[in-house]
Amino acid sequence: MRAVRIAVLMPAFNEEGRLARTLDELRAAVVGEAEVTLFLVDDGSRPAIDEEAVRAAAHGVRVVFARHAVNLGQGAALETARRLALHARWQPAEGPFEAFVTMDSDGQHRPSDVLALAASIASGADVALGDRFAGGSDVPTSRRVLLLLARLFERATTGLNLSDVHNGLRAFGPRAIARMRIRQNRMAHATEISRSISRASAERASDDQLRVVEVPVSVRYTGESLAKGQRASGAVAIVVDLFHSFLFSPHEPREPR
Questions:
Q1: 21-40 per-position pLDDT tens digit
Q2: Which residues have CB under 8 Å from 17's CB, separation 6+?
Q3: Is the peptide bond before 253 cis (omega within 30 degrees of 0)?
Q4: In a designed cystine with 44, which of 25, 71, 108, 112 is the match (CB 3.0 to 4.6 A)?
Q5: Dihedral class, residue 136 (left if φ above 0, else alpha if ψ from -120 to 50, else beta)
Q6: Contact (CB, 8 A) for 212 and 93
C-alpha cells in the first residue's frame, strides 16, 4: 500500500529537551510508514531553538524550519506552518500533501496517533479530530471539568457536538486545510478552527459537506506538561480566551453561493 504524504504542523516555544524527545518519537513512528514533512515553527523561543539539533533529532524526516522573531502565540505559529505547507515550494516531488496534521511539541501527543489521524483522511474524511477520552488518556479531574465547560461552549457557539475540544492533535484534508485560516494568535485559535469547520460545512451543498470524524488518541499528562501550561489556572485562561474570542472576533463574510 502506498505511503500517505503527510505534513505535520508543529509550533514550539521554550520546549528544551521535550522537543528533542518528541522529534525522536516522531521519527521512530513514521519513518517507513508514511512520507512525512515536518513544518516546525519556533515561536520566539529564548534561547532560540537550534535548527541543526532539530534536523538531527528528526533524522529521516524532511524538515521545513521557520522562526518568529518574537513570541506570537500557538495560533500564529500554526498559521505560519499552515501557509508554508500549502506553498508550492514545499510540496513533495511525488505530489501534493494528502493530510495535514497538527500536534504539540512538548511530548503530550503520541506521534503514532499522527498515522491514525492521517489514515482517516486517506479513507475519505475531510477533518479528523483527536478524542483524548476515547484513547485512554489519564485526564486530571480538574481538566475534565474545564474541558466539559469548553465542550458545552463550543456546542453553543459553533453547533459542533464533539466528544473532545481544544485538542491540538487533529488532521485535515486538502480542501479543509485551505479554509482553516487562523486569525486568533493564541489559544482561542482552537475554537476558531471549530467555527471554520462548522461554517465550511454549512455553506457547502448538502452532498458536498465536509466530513468530520473523531479519532481516539492519547494525551499524556506528566509532571512536566502539567507544570508547563496544563494547570487548572491555565485551562481557566483558555476558557476565558474562548469567550473573549466569541464576543469580539470579527466574523468572516459568507461566500456567495
A1: 999 999 999 999 999 999 99
A2: none
A3: no
A4: 71
A5: left
A6: no
pTM: 0.85
For residues 24 and 40, what is the distance between their CA atoms, to the nearest angstrom?
14
Are 130 and 215 in contact, with CB atoms under 8 Å apart?
Answer: yes
DSSP secondary structure code for residue 207 in this structure? G
Per DSSP (E only), the strands in the chain are 5-12, 35-43, 62-68, 99-102, 127-131, 170-172, 212-216
C-alpha separations of 145 from 11, 67, 134, 152, 163 in Å: 26, 35, 16, 11, 13
| Chain segment 152-193, per-residue pLDDT in tens | 877 887 778 888 888 989 999 999 999 888 887 776 787 778
- In CATH terms, the fold of domain 5-248 is Spore Coat Polysaccharide Biosynthesis Protein SpsA; Chain A (3.90.550)
Exposure string of 115-144, with b = 16+ CB inside 10 Å and e = fewer, is: bbbbbbbbeebbbbbbbbbebebeeeeebe
Question: Which set of grid coordinates corresponds to residue 122?
Answer: 486517506
**HSE (side-chain half, CA atoms, 13 Å) at 119:** 11
Decide if 39 contacts 8 (C-beta within 8 A): yes
Domain range list for the chain: 5-248
For the beta sheet containing 62-68, the strands, ordered from the edge strand earlier in sequence to the opposite edge, are 62-68, 35-43, 5-12, 99-102, 170-172, 127-131, 212-216
